[in-house]
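In this section we walk through a basic example: taking a raw amino acid sequence and producing a predicted 3D structure, encoded as discrete structure tokens. The instruction is simple. Fold the sequence below.
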Amino acid sequence: MTSTNTNNSLATLGNTMIDSAMDRTKSNNMSSDAAFPLKQSLQAASLAAVLVLSGCMSKVGNLPEEAQVKIPETWQPVDTAVSPSSEESQKQPPKPVVGGWLNSLNDEALNAHVEKALKNNPDLLGSAGQLKNAIEQVTITGSGLWPQLRFSVDGSTRESSSAAATGGAAQGDADSTTEIRSIGGTLGVQWEIDIWRKLSQRKKAAALGAQAQSELYKAAELSLVANVSRAWYNLATNKLQLDLAQKRLDSFQNTAKLIEENYERGLRSALDVYLSRTDVQLQISALADSKFNYVQALRALKTLLGEYPDASTELNVNLPELASSVPTGLPADLLTRRPDVKASQLQYQAQIANAKAAHRDRFPSLNFSGSIGESRDTFNSIFDSDNSIRNIIGSLTQPIFAAGALKAEERRAYNDAEIAYASLLQTTLTAFEEVENSLTRENVLFEQHRAIKEAVKLAQGGLDLALDRYQSGIENYTTVLQSQRSLFDSLSNELNLRNALLQNRIGIHLALGGDFASAESREAGTVPAPSIDKPDD
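The resulting token sequence is shown next.
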């Protein structure tokens, strides 16, 4: 609002109120001479309001509308693989992000766990409650735009003595007492006219806050699905690591048994027996640790599902292979797709609305209040139009001195808007960082996985050769031991890398902000959602 527009608005308001007040004085048969001082007073008040507010210009207009970030046309992941296919894939235009990434994992057991978590997870239930409260707050804040009506009823009973009324009764006359009952009612109204739209700005801020909370609920929902998926594949990895630890123990036990048989025939030394038995005990210890890791992962999953974290479930799981890449869309689209970024943008807009309202708190306020009341001996005649009392008052109030409180409140609201912008900027940059890191990480993990799979093949061949040479007396047991460790370490690393690929793929979906459910599932209502009443208009 410019200074000229503000002064013109105030002058117009003042003149309107003056004319209205003068009309009321004429309707009440007040003389022109008596009304003239009233008109002068109202004109003086209007002029004072214009002078006071001429310097009250808001700084909110200086704030940017959205996060000022230079966004590239395409994503910038670093390709760590030197291969023609990888280079060609970078030249292809990015495909748009589509919903339903959970189904792309082709895991029915995971889908069942996600559905259970969406219904029972405590954190998501809490987020739904916060959304409901934010929606109710819109109604609460918006109620200030409407007249506030109140009705009160009171009654009384008293006794009146005839002797007291006549100044004393004659001797022999009996005193008489009269019981008087009365009932009264008052209907009152109070209304602040939203002439500067400060109340509308506060309702707008509440509505934006509710929209932001809706986006935060979507973010919590998406994060929950990602965490359940991660926990599920962590559990699958730990189950496969447990099976591998058992195979590792069996392998070392078989080798130890073979060495002991050769020792009994005098073909091997006692040192080989000691070394082989030591390795068996080390694998027993590792197996126990693998069992605990599996149970711990199982309990973490059940906690996410909103269940008691027991360890009674037996699983037959595997880790799916990832073949195709993820459609990433354009970087600019991330701002309109990712729910936490959208929530931060809405919170910033809400703080701007609050800052505008705080600025307008320094403007004059126009209030009307009125009441109709009567006291009767019967309830039905309380509001008899012939005898009821009416009182209607209008007032224009301009804050003059509040020890700097209003100005400080305006500055505080503006500072909150600046803080919200800084948060929006940080959220936006973090979102881009997460996508870029996840895409680069996937390139790294695919390259590592290709290398580790080749290492498994080489380690298996090395172990087979070491055992043959050991049986022939060419190699010692240390070579066999190293070959066994190399093979099982490679197998374990391969499992971890497959899990890391899945974890990172889930992270890509989360960073891109794509919906885990398809549009068809949303429309069909198959995705659990909180029951929320719509706010009153």
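Looking at the output, two observations stand out. The first strand starts at residue 148 and ends at 161. Confidence is low (pLDDT under 50) at residues 1-11, 24-39, 50-55, 82-86. In the next section we compare this with other chains.
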